[in-house]
Structure formats: structure tokens, C-alpha cells
Design goal:
By secondary structure, this protein is of the alpha/beta class. The protein has 11 helices and 14 strands.
Length: 414
């Protein structure tokens, strides 16, 4: 039996747009979704821009509400493409979320109104219904429970958070469940809505964020000499994953396959990678081996590519170690140059874009690449999308705390 898992539906929301086609058109046109923040006052903040999803009317919702609304949107799109909309989904939900923390306005509102037993809750705007209460807006698991109820998924939803690897971890968890024979199909969602004041301040204190306030659209500069940090962003993606024979039995069209997963922990530092890149190398190499492939079979790397000085250097080092002398010729580009760093959703969004890269035979560019870094001699597909016959992609997701996951996706099952 093949270890590959079929992808039969995808859905995408980013700061660029809502929907697969709209996002792909913007991404391959090299358009940036990064702009000045309008949701809240940025007066006195070191960073005043980000990749906000401001086209869905979510500004008045807390983090939980934004994650829920975007998660529903991408799941509906993915299930429709997979031909599974309109009825209960006969498989589990695996959901990747940020570690939910409410902003101060919601905390003050809860303190003021918690004593009112008939309070309907902030999330009523998104989904909650009359049975909700204010405390539900603070509970990590309620987003998964509401999405599971909305789509009729089987069993308790699995909600996980592994920093910036979360979306890829959710896919890996689903792949492992299908391989074990636990289920025929899984609905995977990664959703991130944490663009808020406190998060900007905290990442700013870590000196992890770009401070190019004068040019938000040009701020994310992965692999460039003048890169100075990542840009916080929101978004979501959903993938319907199925056992290939189960998908075929119901006449579903397979878009691509998840062929391999690799995970490796780096306990060097809470926020920094080990300078030797060893855990990143293991994650990449293990994903390729799990797919039953040699490194030469990889046609393209969808890089983690955050635009931070250290992360980009470590990813380049790892690519060189895994691919050897071929590393300089292997296309490696960063979706984050246009959508920003969607944190907990990044692995799922970038996996969905990897499917489109193979299907549409077009490599998304790394924009804002005007000053090459001599220490990073990679083909980053600079500034303009490039036609290419791509059959196998390595998609990287590396997170704080040393949580690293790589995925191999392919057009062929084995």
C-alpha cells in the first residue's frame, strides 16, 4: 500500500485575498498583501504594518473569532472542491491554531460583563449562537469544537499548536492517522488571527520584526542582504486529505499527494536556531526519506523564508547540506515575501500554494529581492514568477522552540 496521502481539496485566505484563485493570481503576480495597520492604533509602536485580513469584516472580532471565521471560510472552499460539501464529513478534524490570548479590550469587556448570565459572547458575530458565554472566547478548544460542529466531523477535534510549524504539524498528524488506518480522510485547517498590539510588541522586543514602516509592501525581504525581520500576518488554509483508494472510490480528483513528513526538535534556544542547522537538516532529510526519494528528486523548495537575518542563513545552510552542489541551482522561493508570516497557519497555506505550484507549473517569486546576499547563494526566483515543470516540492516550516517540520508533496503517489 502506498504511504502517500491524496489531497482532494484546498482553501486559502491571506492578506492578499479570500479564495484559491484570487490568492494564486495575486501571488504569482508578485503582489504584496502587507500594508499599514488600520484595525487598531499603532501610535507609539515600533512596527505599524502587517498582513491583516481586512477584507472579510473581522476587525471587531477577537483572535478566536478571526481564527474561527477564516477557518470556516477555507474549510468550505476545500470541501466544495473535494466534492464533500453539504453533508457531514466522515473523518476527524485536525486544527492548527495559535496559543489563543485575548486582547485587552476583550479582557476588559469580560471583566465588565461576566456577571451577566445572558451575555451572548463576542463570537456570536461569527458563529456562536445564543448558547455561548463570554468565557468561551478565551478557551483554546472552542474554535475546534465549533468548526467540528459546523462540518459534522467525526470524533473529537484535535487542536494543536507548535509555533510556526503548526500548520505543517497538523498536516503531519493527519497523514499519520490515515497511514495507520484510523480513518479514510481528514479535514486539516491551519488558522491564524493574532495580529494585535501585544503580539507586535512582544515580537518587536525580540527584534524579530522588520521595521520598514516607510515601505510596508517592500518590508519582507527573504534571503536578501538588507533583510531585517519578518512581518506578522494573518490567514488560513484547509486541505482535505484522503487515502488514495478511498478518494478514487468516490470519484474524487486528486490534486497532489503528501508523500513524506519530517520532524526534528532543536532544543538550542527558546527563539534561536542552533547555528549548525542540524535539526533543520534532519527535518528536511527525514521528509525526503519518508517519501522514498533521494534529494535529487526534489524540483523546488517552498522555503520557510521569513526574512530574518539568522533564520534565512540557517535555512540556506540546511539546503546546502541536504542538496549539496545542486543547492545553488535548485529553485527556492518564499511565499512570505508577499503574504507575510502567517505563523500558525503558514505550513498549511504554503502546502496549499505548493499544490498550485505543481498543478499550474509556475514558481511563485520571492519579491523585494534587490540586494543579493553573497552568503546565501540560492536561486530564490527573484521578483518575477517563473514557468517550470515541478512534480515534487519540499515545503519547510521552522518554529520558535525548535519545532521544525518539512513536507514533501508530489504529483505522483510514489
Amino acid at each position: 500500500m502506498t504511504r502517500s496521502v491524496a489531497i482532494t481539496g484546498i482553501g486559502i485566505v491571506t492578506a492578499l485575498a479570500r479564495g484559491v484563485e484570487e490568492n494564486w493570481a495575486a501571488l504569482t503576480a508578485g503582489r504584496s498583501g502587507i500594508r499599514r495597520i488600520a484595525r487598531f492604533s499603532t501610535e507609539g509602536l515600533k512596527v505599524t504594518f502587517g498582513g491583516a485580513v481586512d477584507h472579510m469584516g473581522l476587525d471587531q472580532l477577537p483572535v478566536t473569532g478571526r481564527c474561527l471565521a477564516m477557518g470556516r471560510a477555507v474549510a468550505e472552499e476545500a470541501l466544495t472542491q473535494a466534492g464533500l460539501a453539504g453533508s457531514a464529513f466522515d473523518g476527524p478534524l485536525v486544527l492548527g491554531l495559535p496559543p489563543i490570548e485575548l486582547e485587552w479590550p476583550q479582557r476588559r469587556d469580560l471583566a465588565r460583563r461576566a456577571a451577566q448570565p445572558d451575555y451572548a459572547g463576542i463570537l456570536a458575530v461569527a458563529d456562536a449562537g445564543p448558547e455561548s458565554a463570554a468565557h468561551l472566547d478565551f478557551l483554546f478548544g472552542t474554535v475546534g469544537e465549533r468548526l467540528a460542529a459546523a462540518f459534522g466531523t467525526a470524533g473529537p477535534p484535535i487542536t494543536l499548536s507548535t509555533a510556526c510549524a503548526t500548520g505543517a504539524s497538523a498536516i503531519q498528524t493527519a497523514v499519520e492517522a490515515i497511514r495507520r488506518g484510523d480513518c479514510d480522510r481528514v479535514l486539516v485547517i491551519g488558522s491564524e488571527g493574532s495580529l494585535q498590539v501585544e503580539a507586535l510588541i512582544r515580537f518587536g522586543l525580540l527584534q524579530a520584526l522588520s521595521t520598514h514602516n516607510e515601505d510596508p509592501a517592500g518590508a519582507v525581504r527573504p534571503f536578501a542582504l538588507d533583510r531585517d525581520g519578518f512581518v506578522m500576518a494573518e490567514g488560513a488554509a484547509a486541505l482535505v486529505l484522503e487515502r488514495p483508494d478511498a478518494a478514487a472510490a468516490r470519484g474524487a480528483r486528486t490534486l497532489a499527494y503528501v508523500r513524506g513528513c519530517g520532524e526534528a526538535a532543536d532544543t538550542f534556544h527558546r527563539t534561536r536556531s542552533n547555528p549548525d542547522g542540524s535539526a533543520i537538516v534532519r527535518a528536511m532529510a527525514d521528509a525526503i526519506a519518508d517519501a522514498g526519494l533521494a534529494p535529487d528528486a526534489i524540483d523546488y523548495v517552498n522555503a520557510h523564508g521569513t526574512g530574518t537575518p539568522e533564520n534565512d542563513k540557517m535555512e540556506c545552510l540546511a539546503i546546502q547540506r541536504v542538496f549539496g552542489e545542486r543547492a545553488a541551482r535548485l529553485p527556492v522561493s518564499s511565499n512570505k515575501s508577499m503574504i507575510g508570516h502567517t505563523l500558525s497557519a503558514a505550513g498549511a497555506i504554503e502546502a496549499a500554494f505548493s499544490v498550485l505550484t505543481m498543478e499550474r507549473r509556475l514558481l511563485p517569486p520571492t519579491i523585494n529581492y534587490h540586494h543579493p546576499d553573497p552568503a546565501i547563494p540560492l536561486d530564490v526566483v527573484p521578483n518575477v514568477a517563473r514557468p517550470a515543470a515541478v512534480r515534487t516540492v519540499l515545503s519547510n516550516s521552522f518554529g520558535f522552540g525548535g519545532q521544525n517540520v518539512s513536507l514533501v508533496l508530489g504529483l505522483d503517489p510514489a
